[in-house]
Amino acid sequence: MPDVLVLVEHDEARVHKSTHELLTAARRLGDPVAVLVGAPGTTARLRESLARYGTTRVYAAESTEAGEFVGSPAVDALYLAVRTVDPAAVLVSATTDGKEVAGRLAARLDTGLLTDAVDLDSSGTVTQIVFGGAYTTRSEVTHGIPVITLRPGSFDPEEHPGDAVEHTLAVPPVDPAVSARVTARRAALGGDRPALTEASVVVSGGRGVGGADGFKVVEELADALGGAVGASRAAVDAGYYPHQYQVGQTGKSVSPQLYIALGISGAIQHLAGMQTSKTIVAVNKDPEAPVFGVADYGVVGDLFSVAPQLTREVAARRGGS
Ligand code: FAD
Predict the structure, then answer these.
(1) Which of the listed residues 197, 249, 268, 299 should we mutate to test ligand 1's pocket, taking the one with most ligand atoms within 8 A of CB?
(2) Could you state, in order of their start, the residue ranges of all structural domains in the chain?
């Protein structure tokens, strides 16, 4: 079986679910081989989690400067790993960071890049949903080692025992002259809620929420379901919710088990970021809202009446009453 490289996304303490999805997808093409970039000691902490999802080997690029630069340490590590193992493909999560790394890697390798894939078959053909969801395409790389970014939530992670044997990747120091340095970090808003691209439930609010205060209703439903909060661009542009939570073509792509859209019309640019969700529920007071065209369940009504009822019902059922 050929090796398939997977870039590990993690927060030093935990491997992100999107990486378990990549490892599952990689098994369709060959043996998953992880590339982990992090501070010294990270691989030892995360090895077991990688092994559980079928990782055969882990190439560890550990250094104190791993978190100091944007993208470059991961690009350098993947480049060296590609040269070392000659893989059948390189898989990276289609997150903001992942897409930057994948693009730079493909340029450096002079190879083909496929982004935002929602499926991948054993021949390396990927499925993408393009032009704001208007077309579904199937594509394959015809030049060089394919670099593929997979949209988080597209694969259900499946456990499969692997050895995750650790190898050291001796990556040369990052060249600061051609790299962007991280100058400050701020804790993410959102408290204990799961990350938007990792969550199995996302509750999003749109302009129909009417203001920043109105998002309390969205947050309460998300919290009752243990989900993340998202927002439409109109809601973000109006200052109702922070930009990092925008879902859509120019925001984050999500593919949770359940997506609830509250007061969102369903513009094509919003649908582009969420229409691969497994179940979509829409609440909108306009029966003609386009969002109902993609919804599995639709409620025509006022979100300020419907969402609190949903929250109460979910809380009651979770509480067992
Ligand atoms: P609106 O279209 O104004 O819809 C509000 C909805 O709320 C209406 O359907 C209304 O019936 C309903 N409503 C109002 N009050 C209530 C109530 N009390 N109860 C229930 N329903 C109610 N948009 C994104 O979301 N993400 C993107 O990434 C994105 N990228 C874009 C990129 C480009 C290049 C462009 C041109 C546009 C982009 N947009 C994006 C914007 C997009 O076209 C829409 O303008 C936007 O999605 C609309 O947001 P909305 O549905 O919240 O607002």
Answers:
(1) 249
(2) 3-178, 201-319
Chain centre to alpha carbon of residue 195: 9
Gap from CA of 138 to ligand 1 centroid (Å): 29
Task: Tell the CATH superfamily of the 3-178 domain.
Answer: HUPs (3.40.50.620)
If DSSP codes are grouped into helix, strand and coil, which group holds residue 91?
Answer: strand
The answer to whether 260 touches 247, Cβ cutoff 8 Å, is no
Pairing of strands 3-7, 31-38: parallel
> What pLDDT, in 10s, does the model give residues 177-203?
989 999 998 877 667 899 898 899 999
Residue 29: other Cβ atoms inside 10 A: 22
- Measured CA to CA, the distance from residue 222 to residue 51 in angstroms comes to 32
Start-to-end Cα distance in the chain: 52
Q: For 160-182, how does the pLDDT look when each residue is reduced to its tens digit (9 = 90+)?
A: 999 999 999 999 899 889 899 99
Indicate if 201-319 has the same CATH topology as 3-178.
yes
Say if CB 303 and CB 262 are below 8 A apart. yes
Q: Does domain 201-319 have CATH number 3.30.559.10?
A: no
- Protein residue whose Cα sits closest to atom 14 of ligand 1: 208
Decide if 93 contacts 7 (C-beta within 8 A).
Answer: yes
pTM of the model as a whole: 0.83
